[in-house]
Automatic annotation (TrEMBL):
Cellular localisation: Cell membrane
Pfam family, one: P2X_receptor
Topology with respect to the bilayer: Multi-pass membrane protein
Organism, scientific name: Salmo trutta (Brown trout)
Main localization, broad class: membrane
Catalyzed reaction equations: Ca(2+)(in) = Ca(2+)(out)
Name this protein carries in UniProt: Purinergic receptor P2X, ligand-gated ion channel, 4b
Any one of the GO CC terms: postsynapse
NCBIfam families, sorted: P2X (TIGR00863)
InterPro entries assigned to the protein according to its UniProt record, in alphabetical order: P2X_extracellular_dom_sf, P2X_purnocptor, P2X_receptor, P2X_RECEPTOR_CS
Binding sites annotated in the UniProt record for ATP: 71-73, 168, 275-277, 295
Single Gene Ontology BP annotation: calcium ion transmembrane transport
Protein family (similarity comment): Belongs to the P2X receptor family.
Length: 345
């Protein structure tokens, strides 16, 4: 109150150029001094250990931009009553041939051959209004459809294309961190064509080979390939490009991991796995259209690329250093209030 009165009696110019400082008092106490230094030490450990080392808050960061292409290789053999003896190559089981960061491999199927546009018995479809025998003791409506109708309850207990576990896929992934003008591929600069022809990804011996065996990826996701192949599923191929660009470029490389993504909870096992239908169309000699309908079960591999890059920048360094100094200065204020309350002064 006294200061406010003295300032009001002076000129505005004199008040504007005043500067005030806090009174400094030295407290000689081992308890207070030890607590004071301990708090300072903990703040320094937090700033240096967590903020700087763990969080790397002295860096400017950028998120990855990525593109992915895949190429599957392998052949398999099946011998069924519907299709007979047949060799399957990539044009048969890789459907569609190209996807957006994903690819599908056929492992099991239900085949309905020689379908034609005609009428046949069914419980629900486009009805013709006529009744016919569905079974000897059951009558149902006649429908207009592709006949004979698909019976999709007789799924093979073992995957027809069991050999798919030995198929391989080449994953080509290019990434960019535009803020740092950084570009790189998962096919590293020292890799040549002869190496790609014989390498296969192994986490211990060959962690940067971009060619993956399907069974190995499923195994790393803690799944059994042959079990998963019966009804299909979705497997995630995660590529982590988190990089510290303060280090030389060769330290920045892809880190692969694998995880099953579709629902396989026993308590909620409705519509398990992954499947879809497609058909192959033909013309008979008399010009009649016919088709073979295939309900395809298999594994959808989804490539997911993520990552963050960081590089030293003066602005976040100054901001975090200022925050650290602010924390340290607050320690004195806290102790001053404590001392006043405990009548040390």
């Amino acid at each position: 109150t006294q200061k406010m009165g003295s300032c009001s009696s002076q000129s505005c110019q004199s008040c504007f150029f005043e500067y005030e400082t806090e009174r400094m008092i030295v407290v000689k106490s081992k308890v207070v001094g030890s607590v004071f230094r301990l708090i300072q030490f903990l703040i320094l450990v937090y700033v240096i250990g967590y903020v700087c080392v763990v969080q790397k808050s002295y860096q400017e960061t950028d998120s990855v931009i990525s593109s992915v292409t895949t190429k599957v290789k392998g052949t398999g053999f099946t011998n069924t009553s519907d299709l007979g003896a047949r060799v399957w190559d990539v044009a048969d089981y890789n459907i569609p041939p190209q996807g957006d960061s994903s690819f599908f491999v056929l492992t099991n199927m239900i085949v309905t051959p020689n379908q034609t546009q005609s009428t046949c018995p069914e419980v629900s479809c486009i009805q013709t209004g006529l009744c016919m025998n569905y079974k000897e003791t059951v009558k149902t409506c006649e429908v207009l459809s592709w006949c004979p109708l698909e019976i999709d309850i007789n799924l093979p207990e073992h995957a027809l294309l069991a050999a798919a576990e030995d198929f391989t896929v080449l994953i080509k992934n290019s990434v960019t961190y535009p803020k740092f003008n950084f570009h790189k591929r998962n096919i590293l600069p020292d890799v040549n064509s002869s190496y790609l022809k014989q390498c296969e990804f192994n986490r211990k011996t060959d962690p940067y080979c971009p060619i993956f065996r399907l069974k190995d990826m499923v195994s790393e996701a803690e799944e059994d390939f042959q079990t998963m192949a019966i009804r299909g599923g979705v497997l995630g191929i995660m590529i982590d490009w988190s990089c510290d660009l303060d280090w030389p470029e060769h330290h920045c490389g892809p880190k692969y991991s694998f995880r099953r993504l579709d629902n396989k909870i026993p308590e909620n096992n409705v519509a398990p796995g992954y499947n879809f239908r497609f058909a192959k169309y033909y013309k008979t000699t008399d010009g009649r259209e016919t088709r073979t309908l295939i309900k395809a079960y298999g594994i959808l591999f989804d490539v997911i690329v993520f990552g963050t890059a960081g590089k030293f920048n003066m602005v976040p360094t100054i901001v975090n250093l200022g925050a650290a100094l602010t924390f340290l200065s607050l320690v004195s204020s806290v102790k001053w209030s404590h001392l006043q309350n405990t009548h040390y002064l």
